[in-house]
Fold this sequence. Notes:
The structure is a single chain. The chain has helices at residues 4-17, 80-92, and strands at 24-25, 40-47, 51-52, 61-74, 98-101, 104-113, 117-119, 122-135. By secondary structure, the protein is an alpha+beta fold. It has a single domain, classed as STM4215-like, CATH 3.30.2000.20. Strands 1, 2, 3, 4, 5, 6, 7 and 8 form an eight-stranded mixed β-sheet that branches. The longest helix has 14 residues, at 4-17. The mean pLDDT is 94.
Amino acid sequence: MSTVFADIGAALDGRMNTLSGGAAIAWQNTVFKPTKTALYLKPTNLPVSASQTGLGASGIDQHTGIYQVDVYAIAGKGRNAAEVKADAVADHFKRGTDLTYNGITVRLGDTSRNTGIIVDDRFVISVSINYTAHVAPR
C-alpha cells in the first residue's frame, strides 16, 4: 500500500516542527486552545492533483501543492509580530530545500504571503510554500 500523501505531509510537518521561536502550533485534527495573549501558527497541506511526468505505465508521478502556514497574531497590536513570524516561516522553508520522509523527497519552491486579515480577535497572515515531489506511479 502506498503512503505518498501521508509521507509528503509528514515531511512538511516535520520541517514545521523544527521552526524555532516558541510559537504554539495548531495541528490539523487535534485539540488546540489558543492563549489569548500569544501568537500561534496553523499549518495546512493543500495538495494539487498528481500528474504523470514520465512516459509509459511506469512513468514518474509529480505531486505538487501548497503548504500554508497561517500566523495568528493578536489583533489591534499592529502588524510587526505577525510579519516577523511570517518572515521566519518563509526563511525556514527556503526554496530548494529537500525534505525526505519514508523515501519520498519533497522539494520546496517559492514562498508568498498575503497582506493579512482580521479574523475575530486575531490578525492573520498566510504564508504559502509551494512544493513538488516526484514519486513512482501507483
